Amino acid sequence: MDGSSTYVAPRLAPLRWLASIDPTLPNEVRKRLGAIFFGSPKPFVVGAINAVAVVLLAFYRIGHSVFLAIAAVEVLLLAARLAAMRKPGVRTGPFFAVGLAWALTQAVTIVVVVLSRDIPMTIIVLASSLAAIGSIIGRNFAAPRYAMTQVLLIDLSFKASFGFLYPEFIPLILCQGVMFVLMNISMIEQHRRVTVRAITAEIESRTHSLRDPLTGLLNRRGLEGAFDRLTARGTRPALLYLDLDGFKQVNDTLGHHAGDVVLQQVGQRLTATIGPHAVACRLGGDEFLVLCDDSDAEAIVGLGARLIVSIGTPYQFEPTLLARIGVSIGAARGDPAADLKTMMVLADEALYAAKAAGKSRCILHAGNSETGEGHGPQARRA
Hints:
The protein is built from 13 helices and 8 strands. The chain is 63% helix and 11% strand. It has 382 residues and is α+β, with helices and mostly antiparallel strands. The chain has 2 domains: 13-207, no CATH class; 220-374, Reverse transcriptase/Diguanylate cyclase domain (Alpha-Beta Plaits), CATH 3.30.70. Helix 4 packs antiparallel against helix 5 (92-115) and helix 10 (247-254) packs antiparallel against helix 11 (256-274).
């Protein structure tokens, strides 16, 4: 189950504290860690089957009716846990509460078996509890407090009951208990650290595959995804195709490093000018694309005019060293059924017209609107 987009912390304050995931981690990493809790239900089913088998065997050997009650509780807890897993976004509280109740039933089973002095049954229960602790660490490491609470409930039940029967071993039990806690904390932290590193690397790899490494803008692949999401909502897209004027001269006179700095600043100015509801893409070299909602032709040409002003503002490298470039823009409007390739062709045709008309201007493809050319939102096609 992919819970990366639905996991939320429990509402109840004590459970929220226990189930807390490191708040210093990026939000996406925290959600991915939270999704681990709601992975495959198979371990819970297998664990419940094992627990029921163990308590029924204990009932057969020891004859205490409490084991039948524990078996019934195990079945009910499994059902509750599976129900909570179906809606992780709204039932995280019950999920974690059931997990604590399950650990408590393991603790009760251990105490009753150890106090019965049935050595073979004690060994079986101890082996089962160690397997449960391993499963807890492997699955719940994302919330260290929650994992350690479950582990301590199970471990302390054995140490307390054994110490009650054999008080002469209490000093050794206390020493082992401290070592056991420290060891488990270390294992949980190591597991968490390795997983966070893997998730972070995956996110960075995905981001790099969708982003231009120099400017941080979307690349062609990233733009295709943004276009698909925009049209999937039934929104009319508009595409602006930008080509920098005079950029080659900057590279030739000031060097490629200065050219890279200019491209980075162009990316920053693009992002600042288009606002949060549009996306910018570096297509390659000195060519850029802007994808936005198609409100009307005037707004598109107006956006083009603002981009011309923003990108055309000189770029200062040193107090006395300025670089000047311009930008020509071709724009195209589409409908929700439009495809990106066709819109790029139309925008490129309009860009060619802008270049031929003298550069540093925005032209909307003639097939889209009566508005065709201009330096400002009120311009009309000549």
